Amino acid sequence: MLLISILFIGSASDNYLFAQDAVNLKDITLEDIWQKGTFRAERLNSLHSMQGDYYTLLDYNRETRSSLIDKYSYKTLEKVSTIVDSKDLTDLDYFESYSFNSDETKLLLNTDSEPIYRHSENAFFYVYDLKTKKLQKVADTKIQEAAFSPDSKKVAYVLKNNIFIKNLVNNKTTQVTFDGKINKIINGVTDWVYEEEFGFVRAFQWNADGTCLAFLRFDETEVPEFTMMKYAKDLYPYPHTFKYPKAGEKNSEVSLYLYSLGTGSTSKIDLGQYEYIPRLKWTKDANILSVQTTNRRQNSLKLHFVDKQTQLAKLVLEETSNTYVNVRDVLTFLKDNSFIWRSEKDGFDHLYYYNADGSLRNQITKGDWDITNFYGVDEKTKLAFYQSVEDGSINRTVYAIGLNGKNKKRLSAAYGFNSASFSKNKMYYINNFSDANTPSIYTLHSADATKIKEVKNNNALLNKLEYYNVGKKEFSSIRTESGTFNMWMIKPTDFDETKKYPVLMYQYSGPGSQSVQNRWNGYDEYWYYLLASKGYIIACVDGRGTGGKGTAFTKVTYKELGKYETIDQIEAAKELGKRSYIDANRIGIWGWSYGGFTSLNAILKGEDTFKMAIAVAPVTSWRFYDSVYTERYMQTPQENPKGYDDNSPLFFADKLKGKLLLVHGTSDDNVHVQNAMQMINALIKADVPFDSELYPDRTHGIYRGENTRLHLYKKMTDFILKNL
Fold first, then answer.
1. Do 662 and 518 share a structural domain?
2. Distance (Å, whole) CA 380 – CA 568
3. What does the alpha-carbon distance between residue 303 and residue 357 come to, in Å, rounded to a whole number?
4. I want to staple 125 with a disulfide (CB 3.0 to 4.6 A). Which of 138, 197, 198, 476 is the partner?
């Protein structure tokens, strides 16, 4: 497999070089990237593993508003049947996503969704019975987070911050909570900061026999409000106000409740002292709920087991750190209620196996490397499946290992970026492989890594790219005064080492992130090839604080976000400037969000190093950002004022010498436009020239609305061509 993959990459490269010699290559355009979808890769959409040896795929066409779900066999990859086609549904024109009930006899279909924030949305939900082919509407209005009960006879959901349960048999609806109120009380879904920073929206869970619903209640009455103006097309702008706890400010008071379907009673559970409840999950025992709590500083993470009958909570394990403890999604319960846990307690991210009482059975994975994903356990073979950086921090490889930590086996053969989608019974998996030269190839394997057949490839995209002016992404490392870091570089296809080139550096730099990865292009990278065709070298360096290299490397930025990241970008730029083919007087830097924050610091603190910078949606002071994220890495502003202010670009505006473009969306609910406005004021006060661009009603991603991304990238491209 490895040899075949290498030959494939080499062959594509040879063809590419031949194409360069044989034809006049076309330059990539911004319209190709952001309007025409010229380089869109094929992928498997919404793959859902079923019971047995089957999986389903959703085919949703946004243009025609049509949807269908097809069922496939893992053994043959052949289509078995079409489970549902929207053209056969009289009351539903299309659906956008789906989920099965426990025995896969019914589907929850949602349609006409409206985004609330990054992960949350309101939508209409329907239950589709696969046997009778009938649709049943869950509610007459749009709702949130509908979920089947284990017996499939009920659906729980949230409407206007209250929980409801729809009985699918008698069509009656029971209201569980009554105190929900916008910007005050939330039941069953998370508040803004939990959704953004703990990564979940549904805050209710059914137990195994469907007799109990556990849910979180958020009292955000005392949380300060943030207001954004909406401009839209109305005669008068109007305000959108929501609760947003900034660093050091009041958080929601979060509490855990159990609702008994039998008695209709609701009970509050005492979990002791805590600030956050970032996870709740029922165990295999219908009477035992697992709950994770953490303190405000997030350096203590506790796992509790709550007994449904006694309503008492028992502390099962606790992890502490002199920095912070990351909350993970790995917690997996086996039939006997023993469980798999993910921890960085030995300095690297690894899997641990615990008995049902919380005593440690053994550490499953070990070594000076991190696991990066966990795919579950086959209890019959006693094997755990995971993804890791064992083949180098820029790569991802899939492995199997015994629960006893023995008999480890590499499942993915090719070096690059591998991820796996396992069947429910863990007998098969589909491997998604790509590297910097190879777009995604999906292959079907049995659990012992035997390749059965190829599912999908992107040879057509590779063939298309042979006729475009696209260079190669080269991976290396760069040594600076502070360390050795991963780097990639893209050079012009007509690169001449006797000439000097300007360099644009890209970085994100946030805690645990990785921008230097051996995987296929994201859309920004096609923009880099466009810039390379105009004579620029693009480089990316992952400095200290980024991920894949253990906790010592990542957590060095604790209490000083922005310090080491900025130093590393400045030092890397200086080292690049020493190379004979790089013009040290023409080095620029850009980034988005955290990357925008670092870009601002880099051009201000490295005023003699960078000629220009672009900062898109940047944080300009961590005092303006949310409590959960910021305090995890910085503690509160009251505890660590120096750490906040010493690394805020607001205090260094007078150092600006190069050209700066500052970009922000006015409806950014994540990094508020307040950050840009404060930076603009600081630059005005310092009487230094700069450029800025505001995108009305756009959120953090600055993408909604016709031509938005195209306009943004034209703006940035013109700025680079003019100033670098």
1. yes
2. 48
3. 11
4. 138
Is pLDDT at 225 greater than 80 in this prediction? yes
CATH number for the domain harbouring residue 568: 3.40.50.1820
pLDDT at 64: 81
Q: What is the mean pLDDT of residues 8-29?
A: 55
Average pLDDT rounded to a whole number, residues 674-695: 98
Q: Is the pLDDT of residue 373 over 70?
A: yes
Distance CA 701, CA 221 (A): 29
Find out whether 487 and 572 touch, Cβ atoms under 8 Å.
yes
- Are residues 58 and 66 in contact, defined by beta-carbon separation less than 8 angstroms? no
pLDDT of residue 238: 94
The answer to whether 622 and 634 have CB atoms below 8 angstroms apart is yes
Which element (helix H / strand E) includes 315?
strand 313-320
Provide the 10 A C-beta neighbour count for residue 465: 23
Q: What is the mean pLDDT of residues 138-157?
A: 97
Q: Are strands 121-129 and 106-115 parallel, antiparallel or unpaired?
A: antiparallel
214 CA to centre of own chain: 26
Q: Would you state the pLDDT for residue 23?
A: 55
Percent of the chain topping pLDDT 70: 97
Rounded to the nearest angstrom, the gap between the alpha carbon of residue 583 and the centroid of all alpha carbons in its chain is 36
Number of independent structural domains in the chain: 3
The b-or-e profile of 628-662 (16+ CB within 10 A means b, else e) is: bbbbbbbbbbeebeebbeebbbbebbeebebbbbb
Domain that holds residue 173: 161-327
Residues 236-281 pLDDT 10s? 999 999 999 999 999 999 999 999 999 999 999 999 999 999 999 9
| Strands of 532-676, DSSP E | 537-542, 582-592, 612-616, 659-665
Chain centroid to Cα 341, Å, comes to 20
Distance of CA 38 to the CA centre of its chain: 25
74 within 8 A of 423, measured Cβ to Cβ? yes
SS3 607: coil
Domain C-terminal end among 90, 110, 142: 142
Tokens for 122?
Answer: 């309101």
Give φ, ψ of 402 to 5 degrees. -65, 150
Last residue of a domain, one of 327, 361, 384: 327
In a domain, 671, yes or no: yes
Tell me the CATH number at 240.
2.140.10.30
Q: Are strands 350-354 and 288-294 parallel, antiparallel or unpaired?
A: unpaired
What is d(CA 531, CA 540) in angstroms, rounded to the nearest whole number? 14
3-class DSSP state of 380: coil
Q: At what angle do helices 708-723 and 523-533 cross, to 10 degrees?
A: 30
- For residues 337 and 334, what is the distance between their CA atoms, to the nearest angstrom? 5
| Distance (Å, whole) CA 621 – CA 633 | 14
496 domain-assigned: yes
Which of the pair, 53 or 651, is modelled with greater confidence?
A: 651
User: Do 603 and 653 belong together in one domain?
Assistant: yes
Do the Cβ atoms of 341 and 354 come closer than 8 Å? yes
pLDDT for position 381: 96
User: What is the length of the chain?
Assistant: 724
pLDDT of residue 16: 42
Do 544 and 576 share a domain, yes or no?
yes
Nearest to 681 by CA among 654, 715, 712, 700: 654
User: Does a structural domain hold residue 388?
Assistant: no
Indicate if the pLDDT at residue 4 is higher than 60. Answer: no
Highest mean pLDDT among 5-14, 82-91, 356-365: 356-365
Q: Which residue has the tokens 């059965």?
A: 452
